[in-house]
Write a structure and sequence with these properties.
single chain, 210 residues, alpha/beta, Rossmann fold, eight-stranded mixed sheet, 5 helices, 10 strands
């Protein structure tokens, strides 16, 4: 399988990269700073570029069976467009080139209808003060995928940790009664890799928590 990862230099993206290579997949990574990816593997192709650049996106996804969008941004109160604009480029490319990869986009708890399910501190303080503009753009990203494409999974991790991969977690679609929850980056990657092989959550928005 050919997997393209957009955002693999750290965090969830790096975990997906490691697990994908271990599983024997061919991986293409789009990275602004390729030097930050110290992994060496004959199945790894690193393309220097930016999610906000159409040509970079086009080059990185041309052979992809699966595209994982796991880009991140620092908290800011300024307007954010990274997630929606990059996703627009991705959708424009696959339409123009008549491609049909599975797109797996990582957003987070607080996006879409998971807003208000992060627990008191997250809902009332952390998200509105530090993540408001970021999640406004994640909402735009999600709506774009849902309305313009048919082969997607949106993954919403709970509060992220650096814990080990356990393979034991919940993928929740019914959020009734959910008030926060944690998940390791390694287990988020485990879930995503499982979906590349068997997309049981196609056109769904699972929240991942323990």
């Amino acid at each position: 399988m050919n997997i393209t990862i957009i955002g693999a230099s750290r965090g969830i993206g790096k975990e997906i990269l490691l697990q994908s290579l271990k599983a024997g997949h061919a991986v293409t990574v789009l990275a602004r700073h390729p030097d930050k990816i110290e992994i060496k593997d004959e199945k790894l192709n690193i393309i220097k570029g930016d999610f906000l650049d159409y040509n970079s996106v086009s080059e990185s996804v041309k052979n992809a069976d699966v595209v994982v969008v796991s880009v991140g941004a620092m908290p800011t109160r300024k307007t954010v467009n990274l997630f929606s604009q990059g996703t627009k480029h991705l959708l424009d490319v696959i339409k123009k080139e008549n491609l049909h990869p599975l797109i797996i986009a990582v957003t987070g708890i607080g996006a879409g209808d998971s807003r208000g399910h992060g627990g008191f501190f997250y809902n009332k303080i952390f998200q509105p003060l530090l993540l408001k503009t970021m999640y406004e753009d994640k909402d735009r990203q999600e709506q774009m995928l849902m309305s313009e494409y048919d082969n997607w999974i949106i993954v919403r991790p709970g509060m992220l940790t650096n814990g080990n991969k356990t393979g034991k977690y919940k993928a929740v679609n019914n959020l009734a009664g959910i008030k926060g929850g944690k998940i390791s980056r390694a287990d988020v990657a485990h879930f995503i890799l499982a979906q590349t092989e068997n997309p049981a959550y196609l056109r769904k928005t699972p929240l991942l928590i323990y």
